[in-house]
Specification:
Elements (H helix, E strand, L loop, with lengths): L3 E7 L6 H9 L6 E7 L6 H7 L3 E4 L8 H11 L5 E5 L3 E3 L4 H11 L5 E5 L1 E2 L10 H9 L20 E5 H7 L1 H4 L6 H11 L4 E5 L4 E3 L6 H15 L5 H27 L2 H22 L13 H22 L1 E4 L2 E4 L2
Parallel strand pairs: 1-2, 1-4, 2-3, 6-9, 7-10
Antiparallel strand pairs: 4-8, 5-10, 6-8, 11-12
Helix pairs in contact: 6-8, 9-12, 10-11
């Protein structure tokens, strides 16, 4: 394997980054360097990263909202590796062989283009289960997880875990080209596709995990709000239509069950009850491929879909009317 530069953009990640840095120390593959690019943190991110032996750099963002992309690009300028691995600070490798397996898969693909993984979502607090539908839609929205396989062009790439060789990264323009893009993960994947470089999107179960929005309910809403209105624009229309039909099915099954209960029709109650339960089991099956969500919450799947719809509408309002979103203590103005 070639030498790998692991670049971690970090802003106020003192509570989350230790798990990642510790998991890196335990990897059986050792030919890598770790560069933590501090993005104007106001906590102990820098000192904690240094305590794990990481090289800490200071971000040199040149414009508002360019933080993560500028940090990644700055890290590349100081890196030595032939391959570049970008990791979000809230991720961590699942086993000591995870990094080696990830690199080996990339090599089997010819070590060309971009490989991205959506980490397995590790749930701790009950409110985090509200992310279940979002996790499903994020994966489906990449266009490549359908019965048509890779017939559709990928919508971009997953942001938390991105691997590329240096030559292809620079040929695409890298994070410098997409500086200022709100959805940097989608934009980077599109930059590779524009240069006819392959983009691979995979689930990260068994390889890499993360815990999304542990700060609380508001952080969860702000995070998904930032992502969805713009991200949905890159989803193939057919995939989007099928997703809307699937979401509608939850409300239809719930409505049919309620109607049968009101009418006190025993046969209808049994049939609509079975339909409602089948929808619950199907949704649970999809969601638990992407995270360890509590099984019982899917008995209330209309609530999960209602929350998703509410945040999506709020996201459309923030992006297209207010032209701004909030994230990590910053108000990001959209052009």
């Amino acid at each position: 394997m070639p030498f790998v530069s692991i670049i971690i953009p970090a802003r106020n990640e003192a509570e989350r980054i230790p798990a990642l840095l510790e998991s890196l120390q335990h990897q059986n593959f050792k030919a890598f360097e770790v560069l933590v690019v501090d993005d104007d943190s106001m906590d102990d991110t820098m000192s904690i990263s240094q305590s794990f032996g990481a090289t800490v750099l200071c971000n040199e963002a040149t414009q508002e909202g360019a933080g993560k992309s500028a940090a990644c690009w700055h890290g590349v300028q100081h890196s030595k590796g032939e391959w570049l691995l970008f990791l979000d600070a809230d991720t961590h490798f699942t086993t000591p062989d995870s990094l080696g397996h990830l690199l080996e898969f990339y090599r089997q693909k010819g070590a060309r283009g971009l490989l991205s993984l959506q980490p397995f979502h590790h749930i701790k607090d009950m409110y985090e289960n509200l992310s279940a539908i979002f996790n499903i839609i994020v994966i489906v929205g990449m266009n490549v997880f359908t019965i048509w396989g890779r017939r559709f062009k990928p919508a971009g790439s997953f942001g938390p875990t991105i691997l590329s060789n240096r030559d292809d990264y620079l040929a695409s323009g890298g994070h410098k080209k997409i500086e200022g893009a709100l959805m940097d993960d989608l934009a980077l994947g599109e930059a590779f596709l524009d240069e006819d470089l392959p983009v691979y999107c995979l689930g990260g179960k068994g390889v890499i995990s993360f815990r999304m929005y542990p700060e609380g309910f508001k952080s969860l809403v702000d995070g998904w709000c930032k992502s969805f209105a713009l991200g949905s624009q890159s989803t193939h229309p057919l995939v989007m239509m099928m997703t809307i039909i699937w979401i509608s099915g939850s409300f239809i099954s719930a409505g049919a069950l309620i109607s049968s209960l009101v009418a006190m029709d025993p046969v209808a109650i049994v049939l609509t009850g079975l339909l409602y339960l089948l929808y619950a089991f199907q949704t649970m099956g999809f969601a638990r491929r992407s995270g360890n969500f509590k099984r019982f919450i899917f008995l209330f799947h209309p609530i999960l879909f209602t929350f998703f719809a509410g945040v999506f509408v709020y996201s459309l309002f923030r992006v297209h009317i207010l032209r701004s979103v909030n994230w990590r203590g910053r108000k990001i103005t959209l052009k």
